[in-house]
Amino acid sequence: MAEMTHALQATNLADILERVLDKGIVIAGDIKIQIADIDLLTIKIRLLVASVDKAMEMGINWWQEDAYLSTKAREKELLQQQEDLVARLEKLESVSKPT
Predict the structure, then answer these.
(1) Containing H/E element for 35?
(2) Which of 16, 26, 34, 84 is nearest to 50 (CA)?
(3) Which site among 28, 64, 75, 93 is 20 to 30 Å from 50 CA-CA?
(4) CB 59 within 8 A of CB 79
């Protein structure tokens, strides 16, 4: 009987996870440290748990532009760095050439 309960719990957990990823869930909180009505530190914590499809549907796609998470974004960043270096090199060469 214990195995059957375990199987039901696993199914329920899978169903809950599927619902959370399908609908999304937001957890938000703020931590504020004050002394004598003077704010010393404020930390805002926001956590969104959703599937990639749901996040995209909500307009959240920051990972596509993050060079650490996307090879396309990393390639774009490297190309921009290369263009910047070429421009700096051309500027240096134009300044150092005798006219």
Answers:
(1) strand 25-35
(2) 26
(3) 75
(4) no
Bridge pairing between strands 25-35 and 38-49: antiparallel
Q: Are residues 54 and 89 in the same domain?
A: no
Tokens representing 30 are: 């703020």
Express each pLDDT in 6-45 by its tens digit.
555 667 888 888 887 888 887 888 899 999 888 899 999 8
* Judgement on whether residues 5 and 45 belong to the same structural domain of the protein: yes
Q: Provide the whole-model pTM.
A: 0.44
- Boundaries of domain holding 17: 1-60
Q: Are residues 52 and 66 in the same domain?
A: no
CB of 45 within 8 A of CB of 29?
yes
